[in-house]
Design goal:
Blueprint: E1 2-8, E2 11-18, H1 25-29, E3 36-40, H2 42-56, E4 62-66, H3 76-88, E5 96-101, H4 103-115, E6 121-126, H5 129-135, E7 140-145, E8 148-155, E9 160-164, H6 173-190, H7 192-200, H8 202-206, H9 210-230, H10 245-254, H11 262-279, H12 287-297, H13 310-318, E10 328-335, E11 338-344, H14 346-353
Parallel strand pairs: 2-9, 3-4, 3-5, 5-6, 6-9
Antiparallel strand pairs: 1-2, 7-8, 10-11
Helix pairs in contact: 3-4, 5-6, 5-9, 6-7, 6-9, 6-11, 10-11, 10-13, 11-12, 11-14, 13-14
Bound molecules: nicotinamide-adenine-dinucleotide (NAD).
Nicotinamide-adenine-dinucleotide is lined by residues 41, 43-44, 47, 69-71, 74, 101-105, 107, 127-128, 130-131, 134-135, 138, 140, 150, 167, 170-171, 175.
Length: 355
Amino acid sequence: MKVIQVRHGGGEYPVYVGQGLLGMTSVIERHLSGRILLVSDPNVARLYLDRLRPSLKNFQNKRRLILPDGEQHKTVESWQRIIDELVALKAQRDATVLALGGGVIGDMAGFAAACYMRGIRVVQMPTTLLAQVDASVGGKTGVNHARGKNLIGAFHAPNAVIVDLDTLSTLDERDYRAGLAEVVKYGAIRDSGFFAWLEAHAEGLNARIPQTLEEAVFQSVRNKAEVVAADEKESGQRALLNFGHTFGHALETATSYEVWRHGEAVAIGMVLATRLSEFLGRVEAGTCDRLVDLLRRLHLPTALPQDQDPDQLLRLMRLDKKNRADQIRLILLDAIGKASVVPCPADDIREVLNP
Ligand SMILES: NC(=O)c1ccc[n+]([C@@H]2O[C@H](COP(=O)([O-])OP(=O)(O)OC[C@H]3O[C@@H](n4cnc5c(N)ncnc54)[C@H](O)[C@@H]3O)[C@@H](O)[C@H]2O)c1
């Protein structure tokens, strides 16, 4: 087991990364207090709730809430159900919300913990690769509004994050690969050594070898923790985590969130951003080929489909919240392992969107 301390404005919390952690009572118990509300979804509860039971046996006052899975249920209504359960549990300020699931459960449970009595404890137990390397660390919580993703939310740091790598063995292939795209992102934007390590261990990642997974998740969380410690509320460095995301969000929106997993769209977005970096002479020639090669070896998509309208993507990119004035602000690479926020004229962006 490896442990990373994440520092933030209000203190710090540990992220444990290892195998068998859902059954490790000594680790889990020390982060629970008061009455306990466990929040999960049906898929995860069916697979993993039993492993957690021994760690909760010393807590008399507890309830569990199983919410329907899927992004369409990341709503104010689901959040309300969590609050209702906390009320039914007669939870006090020392109570703990335990979030067992992917990013959807983690974001909603975290947001309920942020709001109930103006903030109670939350322990995150992420079970998807995306949630382990990204969503569970950093304190962003929230739900969607019919008019936009994550429009309602709060910053609320967890008290601990417990990553049991064994849960990845049951994850759907596309969900697993989508998580790998975010892993590659950390190497690309701020850690060339990690990027080279990923190139050397792509086969181990594809085979989900536990030791390889442990290193990949650990290094990803370490990178995210360093960024969050430097910039908790996203005024500077944290924006670099959006590498590939402006292109990716436009692609997801253009296809009504029905075609691409978030990580797949981000993989294509990272390639487009790197191609643009090369077109503008910011990185040495061949950088984009290197990224494409790694993403392909991880079986991630690397190009826009032929029938994707470039003008539609450009229109959607103009709506991105990072923009100032009339320029589109993108995260571009200066090298593998180094990125910057760069305002880009639409004509330059069109160059890489055209097939
Ligand atoms: N807070 C943040 O900083 C942050 C960062 C990135 C993404 N997010 C959010 O994360 C969400 C996406 O998270 P996600 O990709 O984890 O999706 P998800 O939570 O919807 O999980 C995907 C699917 O996998 C299933 N599942 C979860 N763990 C499993 C396991 N171990 N084995 C088998 N099936 C399992 C779930 O039931 C679900 O059907 C989005 O809402 C996004 O906005 C938040």
